[in-house]
UniProtKB/TrEMBL annotation:
It comes from the Bacteria. Belongs to the carbohydrate kinase PfkB family. InterPro entries: Carb_kinase_PfkB-like (IPR052700), Carboh/pur_kinase_PfkB_CS (IPR002173), PfkB_dom (IPR011611), Ribokinase-like (IPR029056). Keywords: Kinase, Transferase. Pfam families: PfkB. It comes from Streptosporangium pseudovulgare. Residues 1-294 form the Carbohydrate kinase PfkB domain. This is Ribokinase.
Amino acid sequence: MTRVVVVGDLMTDAVARARYPLARASDTPAIVTMHGGGSGANISSWLAVEGAEVAFIGRRGADITGRNRDMELMGYGVDARLVMDPERPTGTCVVLITHKGERTMLSDPGANAALSPEDLPRDLFVQGGHLHLSGYTLINEGSREAGLAALKLAGRAGMTVSVDCSSSAPLERTGAEPFLEWTEDAKLLFANADQAKVLTGRDDPAAAAKVLTAWFPQVVVKLADEGALWYANGRGEPVRCPAETVDRVVDGTGAGDAFVAGFLPSWLDKKPPAEALAAGCRLAAKAISHLGARPRL
């Protein structure tokens, strides 16, 4: 089984679910819960519980929250290679969910913003492995050099590489051209429809995926409740997979991360794209059926 090395963000998610329409400049009753988060850490956790061998490289604060997040990852079976930051706290994301289920995220990267090339354990970058890089690492200026260094180390080792765009608004602030330039050696790109539009200017996800194959041999576009599609350079039509039906959507936080974790093992085993997409949609359905972005233990 191919070992997956994930470089990315570790966060604590403070999820606030409003019970009524937001009362601006006043109080709105809500249910607030705390969960482990961060796209890279989420993907690592889902991979581990699904039986993959996975190492996660990240940075945490020297606080109780960071210690708890570290122990959570080990509980999932992740080989957590976390550098402890003596000055910055563990990253935090406030996830605001309206009474209609719409999500808005307020993120403080904390220690994630200080991830450096020196934090990357060289023993993990070996031939036969796979690197998955969270786009947040590149989008954040403080950790960008670490992300670029990880890509170089993986390239020198002959590892396969996948990259996730992470989030449309910071991606747009960073700019499509730099992001595409930094990641052009990746074999596989994950994006959702909004992120694909930021990178290409195309509203149609299939058209955007086709454009993106000018940089990446394979592209996966996540389409939320419409499932996902895969497109390869030179292929006539994309392969599509519908989303799995769930009884009730509880929390969409981390569904895209779960999808990536479902897709990658099948893809690395060279299974047909339709099978890999279905595996991704299966885990995404699990993720939206409970609170929090991580698997239930």
